[in-house]
Amino acid sequence: MNDVPEIRAMIRELAAYERAAEQARATEEQLREALFGEHPAAYALIAEDDGTGEAVGYALWFPRFSTWTGTRGMHLEDLYVRPRARGAGHGKTLLATLAATCRRNGYDRFEWWVLAWNTPTIDFYKSLGVELLEEWKVCRLSGEPLRELAAQAPDAVNPASDV
């Protein structure tokens, strides 16, 4: 739980790297609840420098389910290694640890997204044998379009009708 401020700082660093700093709005309280609350929404691993013990990276993931295989899997939400620590094996160690978690838990899939312009990261993933699924597109509904669609739900399930 003491790692939450450092995780939040690295989330903001990752968002800045991905050219979306303004979108990283999670508070320490939200992260604490998501990671350590009664019903965790996600799990995190921290990579530390062997010499200093300083946090140099993190991976944040959550379970998912495939209706096609009938099995659980893992979705990697974030993988980040601070620039000064890149090339030292931290990213590969985080991914290997998550792959071992998948195997231990019987997860058939380990999936995540990568920005199309992030060539160094894509090359790193390819070096590990990662399959890039070019035929799939990420869909996102948020903000006003999400509210508008939710308003069209039947009253019995429409959270806006309870207000």
Automatic annotation (TrEMBL):
Gene3D superfamilies: 3.40.630.30
SUPFAM superfamilies linked to this entry: Acyl-CoA N-acyltransferases (Nat) (SSF55729)
CDD domains attached to this UniProt entry: NAT_SF (cd04301)
Single GO molecular function: N-acetyltransferase activity
Residues of the N-acetyltransferase domain: 1-151
Coiled-coil residue windows: 7-34
Keyword Oxidoreductase attached: no
Keywords assigned: Acyltransferase, Coiled coil, Transferase
Similarity annotation: Belongs to the acetyltransferase family.
Name of the protein described by the UniProt record: Acetyltransferase
